[in-house]
Amino acid sequence: MTSSEIQRIAFEKDAVRAWAKTDPRHRNWPVVYLLDAADKNVKAPGLKEVYVGETLNAEARILQHLENPDKKRLLAQFRVVLDDRYNKSACLDLESHLIRLLAGDGTYRVLNRNDGITDSNYYDRELYRESFQDVFEQLLDEGIFSRSIPEIENSDLFKLSPYKALTTDQAVAVESIVEGLFDDLEENIGELLIVQGEPGTGKTVVAIYLMKLLADIKASRPDDEPDADSIFSDFFTDGHRQLLTDFRVGLVVPQQSLRKSIQSVFKRTPGLSPIQVLTPFQVGVSDEPWDLLIVDEAHRLNQRANQPSGIQNRQFIDITTKLFGADDITKTQLDWIRARSRHQILMVDPAQSVRPADLPPNLLRALVDEAKADGRHYPLVSQLRVKAGEDYIGWVRSILRPGLPDPDAPPPAPRNFEGYDLRFVEDLGEMHDAIRERDAEHGLARLVAGYAWEWKSRNDPAAFDIELDGRQLRWNTTATDWIASKTSLEEVGSIHTVQGYDLNYAGVIIGNDLQWDEDAQRLIVDRASYFDKKGKENNPTLGRVYSDDELLRYISNVYAVLLTRGIKGTYVYVCDSSLRAHLRRHIGTSGTT
């Protein structure tokens, strides 16, 4: 059998027909092809647009593309990947593989729709995937890619890309949501939907995928060839396109860092725009309503509370007055969103609420219960992040659960998670060194911590914030895209810079804000050791004074989020000696060092 070869041909009818005559495989063999905007006389052209496809008849398919005026205008040549070993399944797999990597590489824009991305098993799949590496290396040499596969897969552009193969529960949610949305549009009904999932189940993936899918349906043409392998192909109809005419969609992201990362993805994605990624305040002040607002991390929307700045406090009053005729202090940012849009989709996990200003737990529970009762609740359960398995998230939350243990429930059993590097570390310097080693090996290894140290370096760059075991460290020097910043490996990230992101390895520092009362056999909070001012301040506007138990719930949520960032492993350093001894009892000996 021959190895994969890549042939380059001008994107012109005469050139295609002449090429097709040189080999019978050009008309009757499964192939993968790329259409790009390269100058064929330049080896590393720096592409602007690229399209990836698969077909059993390369000549006919390329000639069909030439009938599309947009592709004929944008694209200059095509490359065909030929391999005597390929079959239809292998080509579908390679096509999806290249689309995902091209979108994550970020050098140029992928023109494909996202509804045809697959991740299906087939005979000898692993053998074929070994050959995909050869194809990638050839394309890298030709300038199609600018980074290695590990570099691409560690990037936000890859992790937040709309070009994902959905899990079964994600696909069911997307299909049901879109089908219901079109039904509601035909009936002129507005509704609120809930997508609920624990960390790593892909809530953000679903939000971004929906944005792209709706944009693709809206932009599709009647003569587009349907993708028979896509469960979403039935949505690409004239009737659905008409329903989306002038349809205004926005993605609301409360967290600054995550919002900036998603805007970078949208900038490189046809049909999407960074201006569609919004703050709750932007929604509130806008004079033009939205047809649909999708809210990621909706549990981080704010109720009425002291905001980070006086300007935002004034805006909260002005927006509420504008939308509801008076300054109603019971109104939340969710109320703004519902007032400014016909349809809403909320991505929620109530256990990831980390500040008192977040939407109150009783409101979130009521929304979830109402959505379940009305058939508008879509659960996500497949664990896509942590390689320890789906039960790792529940285990972490069980050992950090506030309050007294349930006398009728057995205590969490000591656990080892096979294939997952979970360990205790006694010396912070050792953990930092280990994180450096993991970063050199795999990338995306970072130290993170609860807000148990004052942010001295914010006003004094020469100061250190965390000093333990002879190691001196500073908090994150940037709030935006900290994980990818040049100094992040020598800093410590807070909950506000890492929530919503993946790491390969997380070194989690549990400070003295969270402690263990051995006599009472429960977690307790030390207010004096918790330095997130917005994380513990009372709410005089609403007449709320937060108890230690309420504060403990938020701090426990913070650490549960931090302990579920690591894909390959999590290292744990605990300051409080009693808590250290307690947590050690729940991790098997093979997970310790």
TrEMBL record:
Pfam families with a match to the protein in the record: SLFN-g3_helicase
Species annotation: Microcella alkalica
PROSITE patterns, alphabetized: GIY_YIG
Protein name per the record: GIY-YIG domain-containing protein
Domain GIY-YIG stretches: 28-110
Spans traversing the lipid bilayer: none
